[in-house]
């Protein structure tokens, strides 16, 4: 019998209308994954451009890769494919599902609330920038596109290299009108840093978080920093060696701007110093789960966002991580 995962696997849904660039992003994810073992449920193997040198097994329904990732076809049913992954869940750190081009990602995300071995990690919707405005004028597909935008936790305004500045501005305004609280990132061809969209791996622990002297801004892999639009991403580590005031933390977390796209960390509160909480932020949604084991009473969070996110000094100056 396979050993159960030590913690529920993060479950992310990747959505967007036909041609938005989901497969390109998945190809990049599988190629660049180094520390996180992704189980990716896809609609069609034929669309994936997987380097044959990475393939260690291909049985028609699953493709195993040398970096620990696996692709599983949902051609014969989503539930069947998901069960295949969950039977091997101890082998993976994260589950990603490619939604069909016309589906509502939120309905797929609901699966994670029913499966105890999964924990929701957000719905990411890609937008085809050159095509979005015409899609919204098409009565046959308009409602599907709008639903995807409204249900997203993070929206990727994709393929900006194929659109002029006026179109990009109009698309940003349109996306904001349908989902004003949702953080957005712009991108050209799906080469976003995996950490921004999918967060860290499932083995997050305080032993890997920098000490107070090391805390501060850290740029995501320099090979993935982009100097155009919002594609230059930053990550910060905030750390406090004493338990936090719960109300102060709640106010601070609730006031984080949409430029902070991902957040994750372990928290110890003063009103329950023996209990540890796992805090996660995905877009404008946050969760707080108790009874996790950490190394001592230290609280630390990692924030990932666009270059317009507040500086680490602004994030620390007020709230639970203040050094004063």
Task: Put the structure in a nutshell.
The chain is built from nine helices and 15 strands. By secondary structure, it is of the alpha/beta class.
Can you tell me the CATH class of the largest domain? Alpha Beta
**What profile does the largest beta sheet have?**
9 strands, mixed
The number of domains is 2
Number of helices: 9
Q: In the CATH scheme, what's the topology name of the largest domain?
A: Rossmann fold
Supply the CATH architecture of the largest domain: 3-Layer(aba) Sandwich
Output the radius of gyration. 20 Å
Shape: globular
Give the class from helix and strand content and strand pairing. alpha/beta
Give the end-to-end Cα distance, rounded to a whole number of Å: 52 Å
> Are there runs of 5+ residues with pLDDT below 50, and where?
201-231
Into which percentage range does the β-strand content fall? 25-35%
Query: What spatial order of strands do you see in the largest sheet?
Result: 3-4-5-2-6-1-7-8-9
Order of helices and strands: EHEEEEHEHEHHEHEHEEHEEEEH
Mean pLDDT: 78
CATH-wise, what's the superfamily of the largest domain? P-loop containing nucleotide triphosphate hydrolases
Number of strands: 15
What are the main properties of this structure?
9 helices, 324 residues, alpha/beta, 29% strand, 2 domains, nine-stranded mixed beta sheet, six-stranded antiparallel beta sheet, globular, Rossmann fold, Hypothetical Protein Yjia, Chain: A,domain 2
């Amino acid at each position: 019998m396979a050993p159960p995962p030590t913690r529920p696997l993060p479950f992310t849904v990747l959505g967007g209308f036909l041609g938005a660039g989901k497969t390109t992003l998945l190809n990049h994810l599988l190629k660049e994954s180094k520390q996180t073992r992704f189980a990716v449920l896809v609609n069609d193997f034929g669309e994936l451009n997987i380097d044959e040198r990475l393939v260690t097994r291909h049985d028609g329904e699953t493709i195993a890769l040398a970096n620990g990732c696996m692709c599983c076809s949902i051609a014969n049913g989503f539930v069947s494919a998901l069960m295949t992954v969950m039977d091997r869940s101890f082998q993976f750190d994260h589950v990603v599902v490619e939604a069909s081009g016309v589906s509502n990602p939120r309905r797929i995300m609901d699966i994670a609330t029913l499966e105890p071995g999964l924990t929701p990690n957000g719905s990411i919707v890609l937008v085809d920038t050159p095509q979005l405005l015409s899609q919204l004028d098409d009565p046959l597909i308009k409602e599907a596109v709008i639903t995807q935008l409204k249900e997203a936790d993070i929206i990727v305004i994709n393929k900006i290299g194929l659109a002029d500045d006026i179109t990009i501005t109009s698309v940003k305004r349109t996306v904001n009108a349908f989902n004003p609280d949702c953080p957005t990132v712009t991108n050209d061809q799906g080469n976003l840093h995996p950490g921004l969209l999918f967060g860290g791996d499932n083995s997050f622990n305080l032993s890997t978080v920098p000490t107070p002297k090391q805390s501060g801004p850290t740029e995501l892999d320099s090979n993935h920093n982009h100097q155009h639009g919002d594609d230059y991403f930053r990550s910060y580590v905030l750390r406090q060696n004493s338990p936090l005031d719960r109300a102060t933390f709640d106010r601070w977390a609730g006031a984080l701007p949409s430029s902070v796209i991902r957040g994750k960390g372990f928290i110890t509160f003063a009103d329950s110093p023996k209990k540890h909480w796992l805090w996660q932020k995905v877009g404008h949604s946050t969760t707080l789960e108790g009874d996790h084991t950490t190394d001592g009473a230290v609280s630390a969070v990692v924030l990932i966002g666009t270059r317009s996110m507040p500086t680490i000094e602004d994030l620390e100056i007020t709230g639970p991580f203040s050094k004063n």
